[in-house]
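Weekly puzzle thread! Below is a chain. First person to post its structure in token form gets bragging rights.
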Amino acid sequence: MNPAVDFYFNKTKKWHNELELLRAIVLDCDLNEELKWGVPCYTFQKNNIVLIHVFKEYCAFLFFKGVLLKDPSGILIQQTKNVQVARQIRFTNSTEIVKLKHTLKNYIQEAIAIEKSGLKPELKKTTEFIIPEEFQSKLAKMPRLKTAFDALTPGRQRAYLLYFSQAKQAQTRIARIEQCVPKILTGKGLKD
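Winning reply:
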């Protein structure tokens, strides 16, 4: 147990019992407990394996390389269609966690074995992401913007493409694109 992480478990009222059970399970697997992104993160040789986090409707384990886990119990969930690698196991009560204790430990041990093996998940290439029509049009009209966008790292390109694509209406996509043009031209990412 890492005392720096205790506050996280003490601050949550709704999921307190469930979080304590999850913490005990993961600590029983000989992982290091750290605080990353404001949540408990469990590492093996400084590599992230699993974290515990809460949402309004559930609490969860999040496996960083969950896509590589075999998942014989069929309990891993892809949070959204854009999440490529991480997978969650969601819980809504303590009973579910107690019933799955052995299974959860097996998943954690498999995740550790994957990390030890050096296995890496295959990521979708940036070229496979959809470029919204409005952005394609803007790139065609502004060669300087296309050059600047092409010079961005693949991660920054994906972030912009996802941000633009998530808007349901063309007008919103156009507004987002216009808002981001100055950042792209200066070589900055969406969150920079």
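Puzzle host: Confirmed. Bonus trivia for everyone else. The beta strands are 32-36, 39-44, 47-54, 59-63, 87-91.
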